[in-house]
Amino acid sequence: MRLARLLIVAVSLAASGCALDPFRSGSPTGPSSGSSSGNSAGRGPVVASAPEVTSAPQPEGAGIVVPPPSQLPRERPKTPPATLSPASRALVGQAQAQRKKGDLPGATVSLERALRIEPSNPLLWIEMGRLRMDQQNFPQAEAMGRKALAISVGDYHTQSAAWTLIADSLKARGRNSQAQEALGKARELAQY
Amino acid sequence: MTSRRPRSRSKRPLQKGFALLALLLLVVAVVIVAVLDHRVTRQFEGRRWTLPARVYAQPLELYVGQPLSAARFAQELERLGYLAQRSATRPGMYRRKGDRIELYVREFRFSDAVQPAQELRIGFSGDAIAELGNAQGVDVPVIRLDPLLIGSIFPIHGEDRIVVSPAQVPPLLPAALKAVEDRKFDTHHGVDPLAILRALVTNVRAGQVEQGGSTLTQQLVKSYFLDSRRTLGRKAEEAIMAVILESRFEKADIMNAYINEIYLGQDGRRAVHGFGLASQFYFGKPLAECELHEVALLVTIVRGPSYYDPRRHPERVMERRNLVLKLLAERGVVRPADAEAAMKQPLGVTDNAGRTANYFPAFLDLVRRQLREDYPEDALTETGLTVFSTLDPLLQEKAENALAEELARQDKSARKVSRGLEGAVVVTTPQTGEVVAVVGGRRASFDGFNRALDMQRPIGSLAKPLVYLAALETGRYTPASVVQDAPVEIKLPNGQTWKPGNYDKKMRGPVPIVRALTQSLNLATVNLGLEVGLGRVARAFVQLGLEEAPPEYPSMLLGAANLNPVQVAQMYNTLANGGFRSPLRAVRAVIDEEGKPLKAPELEVAEAAPAEAVYGLDRMLIEVFERGTGRPARNLLPASLVVAGKTGTSNDYRDSWFAGFSGGHLIVVWMGHDDNTPTGLTGTTGALPAWTKLMSSIDTVSFEPLMPEALEDRWVDYYTGRETSPNCPSVAVRLPFAIGYVLEPSDTCPPGTTPEEAALLAQQGDGAAPIESSPPLISPAKP
C-alpha cells in the first residue's frame, strides 16, 4: 500500500517536477518588478504534464540549459573514480556472497552497514540498486542509480556504472527505448 | 461382635451417609485436582510466556578510521555492561591500556547472522581507530559490538521478561536460590511441611507474617496465577498444584521455569519478570556475566522486590545481601573467602533508576508507531520479536542534554514568559533516512506527552524554504532574482483582509531572493509565493515528504501549517539529501524468536525535486549562517564545519524552531509552551542555541554537496542581486547559476573589478550597498 502510494507520488512528481529546469538562462530578475499585491497564480507552470514517468529528467520546453552528457566531459575536470574504504569493501564482499546464496535480507543488512559508514560513496548506492534488482524492486533500483549519479558528479566511470544500472532497471520493466538511451549514456561516459 | 451388630445396624444409614459423603468428597477432590492439574500443566507446558518485542539501539561499528577515541570507546563499553579487567578472558570483559583496548565481544544474534563471541585488539590513534585485529593478530575489517537493549514493547501493566535457557544461567544462581529459599528443593514433592511449620512458628512468634514456608515450586505456581491473596484456600490450592507439577515434571524444568517466571521488580508500568531481564534491569548486562555478589543481590530481591528494591533501599538491601552471602558460605554453596570478598563489593546497580525500561520513551514511541503499520499489537507484545532500531544512544544523550541545558538557561531568563518552556528534538542521518534521536520534552526519560510526534504547531518561517524551492523549480527564478519586499493585502474568502508585516515593521523594496530568504523577510516571501502560486508551494510540502498538502491559504507562505518536529525533519531531510526523499525510519530490521527476518521498513529513495533547485536552495540556507538569522551561531560552531538551516518563529513568538543540517546530521529543535502562550523567543534566540550546542558536540561532517553539472558559481551583490566581484566593498556572495546564465552586472563594481579599483571605490564610499547605505549584516528580520 505504502509503496503504491509512494509510486503514485513519484510518478506525479516525475511528471511535473523533473521536466523543469530551475536555473533557466534569461532575464536576471524575476518576472515581476511592479506591484505584487493580489494573487498572480495565473502565471502557471511552464510545462505541460508529461504523460508518463520519464527515465531521466528529460528537458523540455524552451530555455533549458542542461546539456546532454556528451557535451559535458571536456568542459569540466574529471574526478578520479570512487573507491571503497576497506570496511565498505569487506561489507560489499559479504553482501555479494549473501546475494549469491539468495540471502537477500542478509545482503541488505551488509550493504546498509556500508552505507552508514560511507553514505556519500556512489558505488555503494549502485550496489544497493543491484540488490534491489535481485529483489525485483525495479523502481527502487533506478532510484538508487539516480542517487549514485547525483553524488558522482564529474566521476564518469562511476556515472557510467550508474546509468548501466538505470538501463537494466528500465529494461526489466519493458521500457526498452528509455533503457537504450540510458545505456547509450553509460557507453559514452565509459569512454572517458 | 454381636453386641456391635445392632449398633452397626442402627448406624448403617449414617455409615452409608458417610460413605456417600466421602465418595462425593472424593469425586469433588478428583475434579478439583483434575481441574488444577489441567490448569497448571497447561500453564507449565505451554510455557509460552508472552514475550514483548525487545528493541535494540544501533550497534557500534568498529573499523579502521572510525572516529572514536579510546576513552569514548571505553565509556561505550561501560554502557553495554562490559567489565574492565586485568585481562579480557571471558565475553563481556575488556582491558584498556592507554590507546589500546583488548576486548572480548559477546555473542549476539543480529538480523542477518549470529556474530560469535570473539577477542579483539583495538589500537587508537588520536580520535580514531587505527588498528583492529583479532587475538591471533589477523586484521578485522569491520565488526559490530552487541547493541544496547533500549526497551520492550509490553502491554499496559504488562509483564516484561528476557527468557534465558539453562545454559545462559550461571550455575551459582540455582544453587543460591535453593540454599536460601528452599533447601529441600531437590528432594521434596512440591511442598515442605516442615518449612511450613517452621514459618508458622516464626510468624506466630513475631505476630506478623515474616517468613513464607513456600517451596520454589509453590512460588512458581503462585506467580503463574498472579494472585497474592494469602487465604488458606488459596494456599491449599497452591500446594496441590505444586505437588501436581512435581509429579509431572523434572526438577530442572521447574527450576528453569522459576528463573524465567518470577517477579523481580517494577519499572513504571512494566513488571520485571525473570532473572534474565532483572540482570539487565539492575546491572545492565546479561545474566551469564553475573558475579557472586550480583547473584546474591538478585536472590535478595526475590524475597520482596519492592521491600528490597536496591535503588530505593540500598542499605537495607546491602544488609540482606550480605546475610545471603553468609548463608551461602554456611551452607557450603561458596567458599567463605569468596563470600567475604563479595561482601566488600558495592551493590553494583546501574544508577539509571527506572530508566532502563524504555529508557528513551519518545524514540520508542516512534518505533512502536512504525511497527504498528506492519504488525498487530499482540504480535508486538507477545511473540518475542527482536527489533533493531536506528537509535544512536550517545547522540540521543547529547540531544537530551543540549535541550535540557538550554531550557534551564531560559528558566533563568529575565523575561518571565521564557521560563518553564518545553521542547523537542529530532535528529536524522539524511542520506540513509534514519532517525537517530528523539527527545519528547524537557524530562526526556518521562514517558508522557511526546512533543516530537503528538504536538502540532505552526512552523513559521520554516515554511519559507519551500516557497523558494517552488520558485526555483519553475525555472523562472534564480538566487539573484529580485522580489518585492513591499506591502501585501489580500481579501480572504471570509471577507477579512490578510495583511502580513515584516518582523521589524520595515520594508526593503526590491531584494534578491538570497537576501529575502536568509534574512527571513516576510513580505518578500509572500509576494514571491503569490507569484509562484499557492498550489505549487503546497505541492512542495508533499514533494519533500509531508503526507498531505497544507491548505492553500496565503498564510501558509509564512508557516501557518501545523506540523510536528518529526514531520519537519522528514521535509528538511529531503533538502539535506540533495532532493532525494527517504521515508524516515526508526527500525532497521525485525526478527522472530527463531531469528527469521520479518517485515521492516526498507531504505528507499525517490528523486523528489530537481537537483539544481535543491542545490540552489541549500546554498542559500548555508548563507543563513553567514549573514542571515543563523549568524549568531556561526562563531559557536567549529570554524571548518559547513552547515545549512532555517529559523522559524510563529505568531506572537509562540513557537521557536530551528531546522538545519551538516553533511552527516539533520537536527530539528522546537521550543514553546504546552499551553501555546507566547515565549518571547524567536527561532534565533530559542531553538538555535540548543541546535548549535548539539551540532557542535557531535561527530559530523561538513555539508558540501556536489554542484550539479549544469551549474556554475558566480559572485553577486547580496543587496542588489547584480553580478559583482569578490573584491568589491559591498557584500558579495557566491551562488550557483545555470552555466552561461546572463546576470546584470553591478553599476558600480562589476565583475572583473581589481582589488586596486575596489579600494578606490571603498574610499569614495561608493559602490557599497546601493539600496541601504550601511545595511546591518543581521537586520532584525523575522527569523
Share of helix of chain B, binned: 25-40%
CATH superfamily of the largest domain in chain B: DD-peptidase/beta-lactamase superfamily
Mean pLDDT of chain A: 74
CATH architecture of the domain at 86-190 in chain A: Alpha Horseshoe
CATH architecture of the largest domain in chain B: 3-Layer(aba) Sandwich
Q: How many β-strand stretches of chain B?
A: 32
Report on the architecture of this protein.
The complex is a heterodimer of chains A (192) and B (783). Chain A is 53% helix and 0% strand. Chain A is an all-alpha fold and 192 residues long. In chain A, helix 3 runs antiparallel to helix 4 and helix 4 runs antiparallel to helix 5. Helices cover 37% and strands 18% of the residues of chain B. Chain B contains 23 helices and 32 strands. Chain B has a 5-stranded mixed β-sheet with strand order 11-1-15-25-26. In chain B, strands 3-4-5-8-9 form a 5-stranded mixed β-sheet, covered by helices on one side. Chain B has a 5-stranded antiparallel β-sheet with strand order 17-16-30-29-28, sandwiched between helices. Chain B is elongated and about 125 Å long. By secondary structure, chain B is an alpha+beta fold. In chain B, helix 5 packs across helix 7 and helix 15 packs across helix 18. Chains A and B meet through helix 1, helix 2, helix 3 and helix 5 of A and helix 15, strand 19, helix 17, helix 18 and strand 27 of B.
